[in-house]
């Protein structure tokens, strides 16, 4: 009865465990990172902070209420038949004034703040581009470690079956003990490689889980073709596309626009800001009413420093954009050529793989029949294993260069 209950619990737990694990394709990993990445979430708040400055820029100055009360202190100066607290012995000053922003200062403040919002949005898009690239590379690292683990497992299974065959052949005195020892040594080497590869795979899987913000355990779909592995655009069109699509280029252009708005704002702030209002002044019960007006005289300060600084910032922004455009062109060209070389390398290895497999199987068959030596078999096994590893290395570099091409062109943000 107790065993039956245990089996029921285990059966009910299997669907739950399968639901708790998330299998991610590369586009799925990028989507999860865009939504749940723990470092991307606080970066997105910078845009909201910049939008708050737009609200601040649109606020008008508050009116200012000023009160001054003067009281006679010497009773000899009091009005006849009055006491200390009587209003005949007191003067009161009520003043209500407000600053008026002239020369379009409020409008220019709003324009400059809106420009900073655009800069914040493009900055966040560039942060997102880098995080998506990091996530994509980490997905590829997990994929590479997983296929490497499977390759070592396959090689270990093959040698393990051969070791068992060798043990039988040794008992039948068909081979020497040294041949069995060499086969067992190779099996031990594969076992050590397998243990290290398994740990590397687990580590990379945890790193991917952090970048995608997943709370459940995850796995990757190693059959995912990694989007479309063909870049149809030509190099010149990719360079032109990058100069338009890349968020850091858009950020630099937005910074220039904001710098131009800041120059206009600083020039407007050099203009005097008048303060106007009304005065009500009862003096010893005699009411007075008047107006208040004040304006600073631009004799010494005309906002020269801020105007000069804003012009230098514009010059700096334009130079930064020019340097960035050259950098983008260089990155796209270098990545494009690397992508082409890696694609050709993968195509060549695809034709080599069947040859290595055929050679291994024929040498293995010949060795088990006594037609060749253990040295020939171990050499064929080593060649097959290294060919497989080099193929996966080439495929990994090819896919990584494709992902890098998506990054340098800014296309990765559109996935």
Task: Describe it.
By secondary structure, this protein is an alpha+beta fold. 69% of the residues lie in helices and 9% in strands. The protein has 9 helices and 6 strands. It has helices spanning 2-20, 26-36, 40-58, 105-171, 177-212, 235-245, 247-269, 304-368, 374-409; strands at 22-24, 64-71, 90-99, 218-220, 275-280, 289-294. The strands form 2 sheets. Strands 2-3-5-6 form a 4-stranded antiparallel β-sheet, with no helix packed on it. Strands 1-4 form a two-stranded parallel ribbon. Helix 4 packs antiparallel against helix 5 (177-212), helix 7 packs antiparallel against helix 8 and helix 8 packs antiparallel against helix 9 (374-409). It starts with a helix and ends in a 6-residue tail after the last helix.
Number of helices: 9
The string of secondary-structure elements, in order, is HEHHEEHHEHHEEHH
Could you tell me the number of beta strands? 6
Structural class: alpha+beta
Mean pLDDT: 89
Helix content: 55-70%
> How far apart lie the N and C ends?
54 Å
Low-confidence stretches: 1-19
- Biggest beta-sheet profile: 4 strands, antiparallel
SS strand fraction: 5-15%
General shape: elongated
Using only C-alpha atoms, the radius of gyration works out to 39 Å
Spatial order of strands in the largest sheet: 2-3-5-6
Layout of helices and strands, plus pairs?
Elements: H1 2-20, E1 22-24, H2 26-36, H3 40-58, E2 64-71, E3 90-99, H4 105-171, H5 177-212, E4 218-220, H6 235-245, H7 247-269, E5 275-280, E6 289-294, H8 304-368, H9 374-409
Parallel strand pairs: 1-4
Antiparallel strand pairs: 2-3, 3-5, 5-6
Helix pairs in contact: 2-4, 3-4, 4-5, 4-7, 4-9, 6-8, 7-8, 8-9
């Amino acid at each position: 009865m107790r065993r039956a209950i245990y089996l029921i619990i285990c059966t009910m737990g299997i669907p739950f465990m399968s639901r708790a694990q998330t299998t991610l394709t590369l586009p799925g990993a990028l989507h999860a990172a865009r939504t749940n990445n723990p470092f991307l979430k606080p970066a997105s708040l910078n845009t909201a902070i910049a939008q708050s400055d737009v609200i601040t820029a649109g606020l008008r100055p508050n009116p200012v209420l000023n009160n001054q009360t003067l009281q006679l202190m010497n009773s000899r100066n009091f009005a006849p038949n009055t006491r200390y607290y009587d209003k005949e012995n007191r003067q009161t000053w009520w003043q209500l004034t407000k600053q008026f922003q002239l020369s379009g200062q409020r409008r220019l403040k709003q324009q400059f703040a809106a420009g900073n919002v655009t800069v914040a949005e493009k900055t966040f898009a560039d942060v997102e581009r880098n995080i998506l690239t990091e996530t994509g590379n980490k997905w590829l690292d997990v994929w590479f470690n997983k296929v490497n683990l499977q390759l070592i497992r396959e090689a270990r299974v093959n040698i393990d079956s051969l070791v068992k065959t060798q043990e039988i052949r040794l008992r039948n005195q068909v081979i020497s003990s040294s041949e069995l020892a060499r086969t067992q040594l190779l099996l031990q080497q594969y076992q050590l490689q397998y243990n290290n590869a398994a740990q590397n795979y687990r580590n990379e899987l945890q790193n991917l889980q952090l970048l995608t913000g997943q709370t459940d355990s995850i796995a990757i779909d190693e059959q995912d073709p990694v989007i479309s592995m063909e870049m149809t655009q030509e190099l010149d069109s990719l360079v032109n596309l990058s100069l338009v699509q890349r968020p850091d280029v858009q950020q630099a252009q937005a910074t220039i626009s904001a710098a131009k708005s800041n120059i206009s704002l600083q020039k407007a702030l050099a203009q005097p800001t008048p303060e106007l209002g009304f005065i009500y002044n009862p003096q010893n019960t005699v009411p007075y009413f008047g107006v208040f007006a004040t304006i600073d005289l631009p004799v010494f300060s005309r906002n020269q420093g801020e105007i000069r600084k804003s012009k230098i910032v514009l010059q700096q922004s334009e130079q930064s954009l020019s340097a960035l455009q050259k950098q983008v062109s260089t990155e796209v060209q270098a990545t494009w050529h690397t992508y082409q070389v890696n694609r050709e390398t993968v195509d060549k290895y695809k034709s080599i793989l069947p040859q290595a497999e055929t050679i291994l199987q024929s040498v293995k068959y010949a060795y088990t029949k006594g037609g060749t030596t253990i040295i020939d078999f171990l050499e064929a096994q080593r060649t097959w294993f290294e060919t497989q590893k080099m193929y996966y290395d080439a495929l990994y570099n090819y896919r990584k260069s494709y992902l890098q091409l998506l990054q340098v062109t800014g296309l990765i943000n559109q996935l």
